[in-house]
Fold these 3 entries.
Entry 1:
Amino acid sequence: MTQQTTERTDVDIVIPSHSDRVVAGLSEAVGGPLGRHASLRKRFWTPLQVALLLTTLVFAFNWVQKSPCRDGAWENYDQYRNACYTDVLALYYAEELNKGYIPYLDHEVEYPVLTGIMMGVIGLPVHALVSSGAVDFLTPGNPNEGTVFYDLTALALAAFGLVTTWAVVRSRARRPWDGVIVALAPAVFVTATVNWDYLAIALTALAILAWSRQRPGWAGVFFGLATAAKFYPLLILGPLVLLCLRRRTTEARLSALVTVSSGVFTWLVINVPFAIMAPNGWSRFFRLSSERPIDWGTFWYIGTHIPVGRTADGKPDLGLPPFVWLGDHIPALNASAWVLYALCCIGIAALIMFAPRRPRLGAMAFLVVATFLLTNKVWSQQFVLWLVPLAVLARPKWRAILIWQACELAYFFSFYQILIRVSGGKSAVLPEAAFTLASIARWLSVAVLCGLVVREALRPELDVVRQDGVDDPEGGVLDETPPPPPRSPELEKHPVAAVDT
């Protein structure tokens, strides 16, 4: 007879070193995977605390990585050579916050309203303090308000990053360690404060958390706020509604109606005042979206930069003819991109309605956003941040995510090399073709992730999240996970049980 310690609270938590080969292999450096009967009840660091600490450290690293650009003295393409460029600092001046202009009312802003509000809430007080002479931020007589604006914005974005990690962990009761993937995704190190995207990302994560807790009204409010900051959260409502239709219960359909209704109402409350008071400033985002040409690194960019032969003077002849033509005809390009995305959405809808088992919300949310980026004419470097928490909700396996993130890093650094070249700099070390290859690798890595998610939707037994009887952790009213068996009175009194071996 021997005794082994077992605790009921530990059984419900998935240990990464037990369920993921990559983590198990890395754990050998610190003594190997956690013991099967190790007690976790009295641990000092909880998964949530670890994930939040790592998020804090990553944002601190990102601030250090961007620090060569914080003063705004960008000479000899330093912002590209050091890969530290950030829209936050550049647009403080481009959107004329340094002149005290109120976003939308005094100056047209290229972002949705809630992002512009965040810019103004931080930027206008900074400008007012500098203009009044109340505070000299850098040296007397020469305050650098752009630096302070970036630092305060970076601090706010770090707070939104913490909210994102917290929401992912809280929505995964059995897999809290998945939050560590959100915190440590390599692309976050270099893109976290390139733009204001973490505002929308945090609100989207809160929306999914609220839905998972069966709070459809609050889910809609957060979805409405998120869509008022960036467009992409709106896309997630499509899979949510279809999943509720497939569930075929009054509760699910009513919850979807409440979420969509409250989301639309919230978006209108934020947008309508600006649309009335400053219609030109408010609509600039929509006009710019329709007028923009092919952006760096997109599917359409790849098509216009693939070598197809040699010119008469021996130089590479770039671009497939249909893509080159679309690049010169923006309305046709817009239509083509939307048609491709519509086809992807039809495929996702068919998957939701006809898969052998109802797919998970997190997986379908990833698919609908990822395919939007795969087909869109714009794919800014920081858009990878949209996908990180969704990829973790869809498929929390380290190997595929790390491969994808490696491709994102390769794209990130090659992107700045191409910017040096097109700006006339002489310090680029990579050939121009390297950026096209990096763009292809990034596109394929996201497409492969989509393929893996689709495969696991068609073969639910391969879905690591659904192992051990779990149905849909983010599903809320959709979740059909059976309740845990009742505790025996004896186990309640004596959590340490004797086991014969």
Entry 2:
Amino acid sequence: MFPKPKSALVPNTYAFESEPMVKPTGFREYDARWLFNKEINLMGVQALGMGLGALIAELGVRQEIVTGHDFRGYSASIKYALISGLMAAGCKVHDIGLAVTPMAYFAQFDLDVPCVAMVTASHNDNGWTGVKMGANRPLTFGPDEMSRLKAIVLNAEFNNKAGGSYQFHENYPARYIADLTSRPKLKRRLKVVAACGNGTAGAFAPQVLEAIGCDVIPLDTELDHTFPKYNPNPEDMEMLHAIRDAVLAHKADVGLGFDGDGDRCGVVDNTGEEIFADKVGVMLARDMSAINANAQFVVDVKSTGLFVTDPVLQKQGAKTVYWKTGHSYMKRRTNELGALAGFEKSGHFFFNKPFGRGYDDGLVSAIAICEMLDRAPGRSMADLKNALPKTWSSPTMSPHCADEAKYGVVDAVVKHFEALQQNGGKVAGQNIRDLVTVNGVRVTVEDGSWGLVRASSNKPELVVVVESPVSERRMHDMFEAMDSVLRTHPEVGEYNQKI
């Protein structure tokens, strides 16, 4: 028998060292995130491993699983607690050691293992931990699997049995790097800033980019789990500005920034200007659809409207579907539709054959960007960006909102705009042209300006994004319109950043 996890325990007590603690809100829509020792303890992680092993058996999948961990001071201990639970449930565990998340996804294919459990808090601040899980490569869990896992763990519905085993794969990164770099070298000698924010990708990104033929300027590639400069998150302006400074100082062709677990890539052009990932997606879609007829793409609801309106994509016959934000949702939809690629504004990109295996890998994205530049001799990254129709876009802005309240707030905001549309009301002085409610609400008005409000899937926050094809003023108008609705809800707090 194993005790039912408690939702809260006090650290430095007998109970904390003798009972599992798992806060229910840590089970997110498509992965799991907790504050270590505040919301989950090591026995709680062990319970998670037992629950995951039980779920894998329940799904009828072979109980064999890849594990790895990111570079945080506590991630290895969390991984070993998870492994003890998985082995207790009868799983054969393949441990690849310190890894970026996509290395674990690659190992599922390379080692022919059906399941994955990667210990990472991605780009979350220090103190957070989490697990990205899947039992059907290249997909990761969605809400159905996460709901069932939550029920198994919190109710201690474990099905432990003998037969678990453990295998450590020595020097595994060499296999991953060899797979990424077994391609023709670039014809164009690109000078590239590789920025890693002292996160896990620092151990691999410079090596991969050098192997494909780039001159690499490493930036904060030394592993340091205190993240002394800034959080390794290529959506944060602090990291983007550090990349800008390095690009300008070294006269680089492009700056590439990788998040904490290496599954996302941010881009700064040769003039030092950041290019938000959705615009990078449009550039890549132009490049890919030029060499692949009738290309189909999937993009998330936070992304630019250019995927539909860009005349080059229209001329090349590209088709785009908007879908729910979240790496698991996007991965699944890209796979279901057999799309050439999926692009998410956060920088998760999903390339199917011939470019990738369907999972998100920041290094595959970086290679795709370098190859796009290789196919555009004489044109800079800024040239390719400036060839896009002009729009004014905000970064992702996140006002605080408790996990227990955020979905209720978003439901109320959706109802507000649905009623406004029905009654002919105006947003930012114009009629509503279109509402997309597949994930929160995306409000588009007559001049093509739009605003989005949705709940963050992995933090106690809302997500707000606005864009206008008309002017910077209209972008601000849309933000003020969306924010004025949010301000009617006292549960909504301060933003992490604002335009």
Entry 3:
Amino acid sequence: MTQPTVPSAGAPVDVEGRAQLPFSEHVAMARAYPGGRMTVGAITPLEGFDGPVPSLAGHIERIQQAERAGFASVWVRDVPLLDPGFGDAGQVFDPWVYLGQLTARTTSITLGTASIVMPLRHPLHTAKAAASVDQLSGGRLLLGVATGDRPVEFPAFGQDLGGRAETFRQSLEYFRVVLEHRFPHVESPLGRMRGTDLLPKPVYRRIPVLMTGRGRQDVRWIADSTDGWLYYTPPLQQQAENIERWRELTRGDGGGFKPYAQATYLDLTEDPLALPRRIHQGFSVGRVSFLAMMRAWQDIGIDQLMINFKHSRRPVAEVIDELAEHVLPHFPPGSSGARGEHRRPMGRAGP
């Protein structure tokens, strides 16, 4: 098993992409999705809060604590406008500015977006920002992308809500062409390029793109066009069926292992023996039952559990310490560059 290739800190920055590293050795993918077992990520902000707006008290310190504790990834949100009715403003700060700060304040944790709303940003701006964070972090970026689910945002940006699915596909194609080719010829409804190039290029030959939810797209298109799937928390059997279908669609396409991750809200109770109780998109549960649930999720093939702490009734610093001591050692970040083991849901037939 080989170790992922990591850029040398003292090397010149390969802004033109003349010596990009192989995607199969991508250090962020290796840490977040080693294959064959589950890791754990954290969705910002790392605090429990009522209402839509977090306090952001000690927000950088909590992410540094999560990195030390053994979280594989931290995921930042793209919420351009406050919609009080939606109930969550994310980490409030612009995701690209925030990722720039996290690049300087962390050392190894994977930095992910969950997710960039592609139709609300020009793909050239997204590509420039993503490649910049990728270079500055040493190749630690995972790009979660979304079509957008907050209708009030689209008229504010002069965008057509009804056409967002098509705009999303056009944006993703434009994004990939300008980052994966030098001086590309682009003819798109979103713009034209000839005789010019976008710099910097990413550290590896492409930036991993992971779809969030369905995004009004066909599942086969998601399997063919992205590098992984970030999904929600349906009942266990339904999730097992989702994963089985995903493995069928992504197995043997020549593109390598494509992970499946689950985002779950967590309220870890003070009583470690408390049984799970359903909350919005997640659970209020004690440590012992939560560990058992995580093992069940791992058994059906989930590659990363992405924890959202919004509904936590305890201080998240305290929760992270408890997870670090009793839970995270069972699900450590990956370190090997040799990924690609597909796991079959337990008790289900497969090829």
